[in-house]
Amino acid sequence: AQSVAQPEDQVNVAEGNPLTVKCTYSVSGNPYLFWYVQYPNRGLQFLLKYITGDNLVKGSYGFEAEFNKSQTSFHLKKPSALVSDSALYFCAVRDWQTGANNLFFGTGTRLTVIP
Amino acid sequence: NAGVTQTPKFQVLKTGQSMTLQCAQDMNHNSMYWYRQDPGMGLRLIYYSASEGTTDKGEVPNGYNVSRLNKREFSLRLESAAPSQTSVYFCASSEDRASPYEQYFGPGTRLTVT
After folding, report:
1. Is the peptide bond before B107 cis (omega within 30 degrees of 0)?
2. What is the 3-state secondary structure (H, E, C) of chain A?
3. Which of A43, A100, A105 comes nearest B42 by C-beta?
4. What is the structure's pLDDT at A97?
5. DSSP letter (8 states) at residue B9
6. Is the pLDDT of residue B99 over 80?
7. By the CB < 8 Å criterion, does B23 face chain A?
């Protein structure tokens, strides 16, 4: 069975400081991992993904994520937070137990960047 | 190129009423999905369609039906709405025959059942 854990419901960070949003996963199959962002009253937007290759993945808006196989983690990071980064962030893993390209989502982490 | 569109944006139903949520994508994707989003529970898959003409149940299919009308359109129907179906519904699509694999989401439908 696969699962995604986002251990923090809420993360607060001061503007200009580095930010980390945590994600750990469990999957029976290759770990295809994704991060999405949701701004208020909007749909989810794709940020970045890890399929294979370099463990450090760079994505949109200056975000990056590090795949760590031994710790089964895929934490989202940004060197310098902006107030506009405040949003809801979801980690997801490809669901190999079903067909299509189904994703299994975590419960989300609300990031607040304080001016 | 509008991406994934959903109608309506908002809907209020009384218990027992029926309605259909519409979704269309213009990216020529094979796969389409319906999710519901509830506070503290993330997104849960209701139904998906791996290709035109096929549909399958996801994690929470009870109380819903779907139709993959053609490659572009994937509708979600509530036959007899219940308060437990109050939620925000998202449609998504993806191209799954090769990378990039990621799903593209519509803006959502906020449904309230009273």
Report:
1. no
2. CCEEECCCCEEEEECCCCEEECCEEECCCCCCEEEEEECCCCCEEEEEEECCCCCEEECHHHCEEEEECCCCEEEEEECCCCHHHCEEEEEEEECCCCCCCCEEECCCEEEEEEC
3. A105
4. 72
5. S
6. no
7. no
